[in-house]
Amino acid sequence: MFVPNIKLNRVTDINIELLKKYGIEALILDVDNTLSTHHGQILTDGLEEWLLYMKENGIKLTVLSNSKRRRVEPFANKINLPFISLGLKPLPFGYIRAVKSLGTKRKNTAIVGDQIFTDIIGGKAVGVKTVLLTPIKPEDGWSFKLRRKLEKIIIKHFKIENTEV
Ligand SMILES: [Mg+2]
Asked: In CATH, what number does 6-157 get?
């Protein structure tokens, strides 16, 4: 339930060989702490080149974020990708819409995100593959700190280790 198919540090660590190995043809991308810092509009290092590399290799891409439209839309426009905002992860609706828009099968699609309790649990529930990343920068606020603590306990308990790339 908590254990991702793949664990990496940065989105740019994802490469084509790894996706092929898991039969992944499309990626649903989280935004906050996956493609940028929490509520930041700056692209994480190497993101543009990585997006191009994915597209050139025929990997379909879309954005699914729990944040509001006014946060997600300008960022998605910057990287020229379709998006779903207020995605309500880990509930299934956003994932199902995203997979439909990609036109792939669930088992050939992966969610890429930094949070076990939203991105990964939701992805497992709908049967897409799951890629867990290290958050780019820790968030402020007690609820996030608590969530991150619980994530650390899960990562330790299930011995979730980085996938070699
Ligand atoms: Mg996130």
From this structure: 3.40.50.1000
